[in-house]
Amino acid sequence: EAEVAQSPRYKITEKSQAVAFWCDPISGHATLYWYRQILGQGPELLVQFQDESVVDDSQLPKDRFSAERLKGVDSTLKIQPAELGDSAMYLCASSRTSSYNEQFFGPGTRLTVL
Amino acid sequence: AQKVTQAQTEISVVEKEDVTLDCVYETRDTTYYLFWYKQPPSGELVFLIRRNSFDEQNEISGRYSWNFQKSTSSFNFTITASQVVDSAVYFCALSDATDSWGKLQFGAGTQVVVTP
């Protein structure tokens, strides 16, 4: 069964350091999403890609966060510098199209900023 | 603006009891999609169901059933004869044309605890 892959599963870093997360969507899925989930809350969309283009990054803190999907397949989300408030679960999801298809989620990366 | 409200923070039941999770949504669009996801302790969100705004038929899948009522903007989820493996956080989510199609607006989630 095809799955969304993410790495690392866990990351502990100190504030002011740079961190990067990787996501490999299900093969053939054109749309890729990055969500942030703070403990006790629902996921919130950070950025949405359609192939290699950004469709929505309105909630991405662009002063410290960046995301890319250079070849329209896998994607990297970076935080530089990390802040204490960035501690959260970072979830990647993919779907066939961006219209209304269900999104399939990866296992997430649990980030702890000390 | 789109909004999803899951008023129940946590529900505790004993195995074999039924449990109903409430979901109320707000949207100005006439075309929209509603979803339920399950998040077990492992953390991965598992897709359960998608329903479009034009299909108000209730749906049953095994022990799961969903009741969609546009008149009250609700999309409630019932687990019949709960099992310990049903223990998880359940999220209701909405997708409409606000901002961009595909963006899921999640509720805060309901923690379900099933004890033997």
Which short descriptors sum up this protein?
heterodimer; A: 114 residues; mainly beta; seven-stranded mixed β-sheet; 48% strand; globular; B: 116 residues; four-stranded antiparallel β-sheet; 51% strand
Structural features, described:
Chain A starts with a strand and ends with a strand. Chain A has no helices and 11 strands. Chain A has 114 residues and is an all-beta fold. In chain A, 37% of the residues are buried. In chain A, 0% of the residues lie in helices and 48% in strands. Chain B has strands spanning 3-5, 10-14, 19-21, 24-26, 33-39, 46-52, 59-61, 64-69, 74-79, 88-95, 105-106, 110-115. The interface between A and B is medium-sized, with 29 and 25 residues.
Q: Count the helices of chain A. How many?
A: 0
What portion of residues of chain B is helical? under 10%
For the biggest sheet of chain B, the summary is: 6 strands, mixed
| Form type of chain A | globular
Q: Which protein chains are joined by the largest interface, and how many residues does each one contribute?
A: A-B, 29 and 25 residues
Summarize it.
The complex is a heterodimer of chains A (114) and B (116). With 114 residues, chain A is mostly beta strands.
Topology:
The complex is a heterodimer of chains A (114) and B (116).
Chain A: E1 5-7, E2 10-13, E3 19-24, E4 31-37, E5 44-50, E6 53-56, E7 65-68, E8 75-79, E9 88-95, E10 104-105, E11 109-113
Parallel strand pairs in A: 2-11
Antiparallel strand pairs in A: 1-3, 3-8, 4-5, 4-9, 5-6, 7-8, 9-10, 9-11
Chain B: E1 3-5, E2 10-14, E3 19-21, E4 24-26, E5 33-39, E6 46-52, E7 59-61, E8 64-69, E9 74-79, E10 88-95, E11 105-106, E12 110-115
Parallel strand pairs in B: 2-12
Antiparallel strand pairs in B: 1-4, 3-9, 5-6, 5-10, 7-8, 8-9, 10-11, 10-12
